[in-house]
């Protein structure tokens, strides 16, 4: 997945674009009812008649002058966020190649999808949650020393589980995080990796609160908007916003979530911007 981002960045730079990282935008500057640039937290100003946002729409609205916030929020209040996820990163010296394990394994325990959805909506998680297990070292051995492997286990979970994973109480948060990590390890050991505990070299987990903090996705929404029939294609927010010069891309816009959906949203937004520039 990282190679795709690297390829896009390389193409952008080859065409004259400049990339700046670790510089958080604080405000979108507006003059005479139109976008005129971005102010960063360290006080730098980047002037431009066009600003493209891929962040959560509520955060985007908060970066605008008060008189423009309502028009953005009015179009987003009715939308439902996707589920979040719990991600467990593991380093092990298990011989997964000898075990014949593939790069990708989908472990589903609960066959009743409607029941799973009902549990999620109540903030609960099935006793045996669905797990998506990937072993990146099965594709690229350079990612770990000889005889060792990396694993990533993704579990869809609700943000509201156990009072938002103990949000606001660091000790409670760490306890819930560790308890769920151990639960996942036990189930991996029972269904896929015998003796995994004896071969653990390292593990670290990311909760919905981790996703919310580091990605800016409200409620840790891993897919942005939920991909329900009421929120697909043209039923999702447009790439254009009510504020001239401000555009949106990513998994909160059309056509859908995921790598393909987000990539297409960028293409659609670029076309809309080019049409605007051509008319100008």
Description of the molecule:
- With 280 residues, the chain is of the alpha+beta class.
- It folds into 2 domains: 132 residues, FAD/NAD(P)-binding domain; 135 residues.
- It has 8 helices and 10 strands.
- It has a 5-stranded antiparallel beta sheet. Strands 1-2-3 form a 3-stranded antiparallel beta sheet, with no helix packed on it.
- β1 and β2 form a beta hairpin.
- The longest helix is centred in the middle third of the chain and has 22 residues.
- The protein starts with a helix and ends with a helix.
- The mean pLDDT is 93.
Q: Strand order within the widest sheet?
A: 6-7-8-5-9
Average pLDDT works out at 93
Question: What's the number of helices?
Answer: 8
Helix content: 25-40%
Tell me the count of domains: 2
Give the structural class.
alpha+beta
Shape: globular
Radius of gyration: 21 Å
Largest sheet, described in full? Answer: 5 strands, antiparallel
Q: Please provide the ordered H/E string of secondary-structure elements.
A: HEEEEHHEEHEEHHEHEH
Low-confidence segments, given as residue ranges, are none
Strand residue percentage: 15-25%
User: What's the count of strands?
Assistant: 10
State the distance separating the first and last CA atoms: 37 Å
